[in-house]
Amino acid sequence: MQILTGEAILLEVRELHENDRIVTFLTRHFGKKRGVARGSRRKYSRFAGQLQPLASCRVSWFEKPGAELVRITDVDLLRPASALQSDLEGILLGSYLADQMDAFAPEAEVDDTRFRLLDSTLEALLAGVDRELAGRYFEAWILRLSGIFPAPEACPSCGRPLGEDGAVLPPSGEGLICSDCAAELGKGRRVSPAAVDFLRRISRESLPRMAAHGVPVAVLREMEEVSGAVRRSFLQQELRSYEVMKKTLSSV
After folding, report:
1. Relative orientation angle of helices 112-126 and 88-104, to the nearest 10 degrees
2. Residues 176, 138: contact at Cβ < 8 Å?
3. For the chain, how far is it from start to end, CA to CA, in angstroms?
4. Which end of the chain is less congested by CB atoms within 10 angstroms, N or C?
5. Is 222 helix (H, G, I), strand (E, B) or coil?
């Protein structure tokens, strides 16, 4: 058994028995972990006020080879996410971001890019960046980092550059192809030139910079549909957090 310490973002905190909690957290240098914070539900627990979903923390834990869960010993809060959790929309969006990361980040696989994506997105949200833009930016990037939705530079079938006429999302949901190759298939989802441009911009612009330049609402709505189609095709289901978010916000 060894004790490890690292910078982490808490993805999920849920109750376990009367006194404990299970915490899923994404670390910068050790990948995604799940662990038990024993005694964290007690009134005078050393974890009091530290286990905030989406908070940036320094976490220490004991890890035994082959064990499904680690044992969390200390959590030091570095950046709270309470401002994002202060209203219903923020709570739902935060849960959706965390759920995506949990779904696409394999256990214990070290990937600093995923950590930086979540960390920078949360930082931008806490600074007041547009929430819908942040959601679309994160969706597209998490798919790209998972290798299932690459940057749309050229058609993977024929090599033709994807240009002014936009592109087509094939039924397989993996990447974009040109209109000519889509015509041979006879089916597919049309993706506008503006949406293709959005996918290219995220490669060269940070979220705050895109927010400063602005993205039309129609493009954001289209990207939500396109990214959703790719995500569902890959996972073979929709994320529960997304369904809850859409249903709840539509009824408010």
Report:
1. 170
2. no
3. 49
4. C
5. helix
| Structure letter (DSSP) for residue 161 | B
What tens digit of pLDDT does each residue of 23-40 get? 999 999 999 999 999 999
Q: What is the tens place of the pLDDT at every residue in 180-207?
A: 888 887 788 999 999 999 999 999 999 9
On whether the CB atoms of residues 242 and 99 are closer than 8 A, the answer is yes
Q: Are strands 56-63 and 70-79 parallel, antiparallel or unpaired?
A: antiparallel
Q: Give rounded-to-5 percent helix, strand, coil for the chain.
A: 40, 25, 35
Distance from chain centroid for Cα 81: 15
* Biggest CA-to-CA distance, the chain: 66
How high is the pLDDT of residue 241?
A: 97
Rounded-to-integer distance, Cα 106 and Cα 33, Å: 9
Alpha-carbon distance 86 to 216, whole Å? 26
Q: What are the φ/ψ torsions at residue 17 (nearest 5 degrees)?
A: 60, -155
What domains does the chain contain, in order, with CATH numbers? Answer: 2-82 (2.40.50.140), 88-251 (1.20.1440.120)
Token digits of residue 226: 């396109």
Task: Report the C-alpha gap between 91 and 69 in whole angstroms.
Answer: 26
CA angle 194, 198, 201 (to 5 degrees): 130
Find all residues with CB under 8 Å of 231, minimum gap 6, and list them.
100, 139, 143, 238, 239
Q: 245 with 93: CB under 8 angstroms?
A: yes
In whole angstroms, what is the distance from residue 116 CA to residue 123 CA?
A: 10
Cβ contacts of 218 within 8 Å, gap of 6 or more: 194
SS3 at position 86: helix
Q: Quick check: helix, strand or coil at residue 209? A: helix
